[in-house]
Design brief:
Helix content is 67%, strand content 3%. It is mainly α. Helix 16 links the parallel strand 1 and strand 2. The longest helix is centred in the middle third of the chain and has 29 residues.
Length: 363
Amino acid sequence: MKVFGVVPWAVRLPSVLLSALAVLLLFSLAKQLASRSTAFWAAMLFAIQGHLIELASGRTSNDHPDTFLMVFVLAAIWAAGRMAAFDDMRYAIISGFFTGLAFLSKSWPALLAIPVAFLLLYATRRYSLRRILLLHGAMLLAAACVALPWSIYALLEFPEETAAASTGHWKHFTENIESHGRPWTYFWSQLPMIHGELVVIALIWFLLVPFRKNPHTHAVLLLWWLLPYIVFSLARTKMPAYTVTAVPALCIIIAMAIDRWSSLPKEDRWRIPAFVGGAMLIVLPLRFSLDRTRPFAATVPHYTTPNALLVASPRTVLVNCPFPIETMFHTPIAGAYQGPLATEVGTLTQLGYIIVDWPRPAQ
């Protein structure tokens, strides 16, 4: 915003750029875990994923923090894959660096990268336990160096806020926060809608066919996908973006099915049905993407900011405001509330704030 101005696209730009970079990271990782053709389909599925586009463009709740979380977790696992492939301590440090950034983006869900990285090292079956622990330990140390300074500072400087945030994290598992309480099946039932109705068949195929041939590498994808889904299925409060860190793994798994189903030999009796199924694994999520993003729909602003508020005092507090979030973003005022204030008026006035009612149009 300092560079480009206080406009919505300036806020969205970092998320859009990071998401675009993540497509390349996913291609590189999928190529290492499977094949170049699988990597192509995985990157395509990731690029057209409707929910990820909504998050990056600020169209849905938890937008930018979850985008950063997902991208940094993916980057950490990508670096861990390079670490495992080349026995390179530098990639261990890079993986830890991105894990730390992911933790600063949205706390403990970022820790998904740690067990996935360990399993990547183990899956190579080339390293001794001592070497695995050394590389993984370097990753953990790098993550701590990135995440701990701010975490300790926040704990010392803002102890009440830090305690409230920590308590709030666990309340998602025990309480129905803001009417987002949903059954344990919520994330599983969302799979066909987000990834296409044939995703269930692709996941079953993944477990029964290729997993048996290469269980160690494929276990990485299984852990990457299932851990967020199982953990957050136990939470009472559920939001669609809670499992966003598992999306790259699901894209690779589905891409494996597309690659295999579309390349069966001519004499195989399942060739045509499999080819059609592979095509539908692309078309169905693309339909969801177009439905959610509506790229050809005309955008009509749902609010306008009164000119008087654009030059209002920074000590202004607005009440009875129909669009409080948007108004605080586009104007210099201190705060805006959708309704009236009761007991807070006296305190705010004593602190030097000016209470102003939302400007009404002239009759």
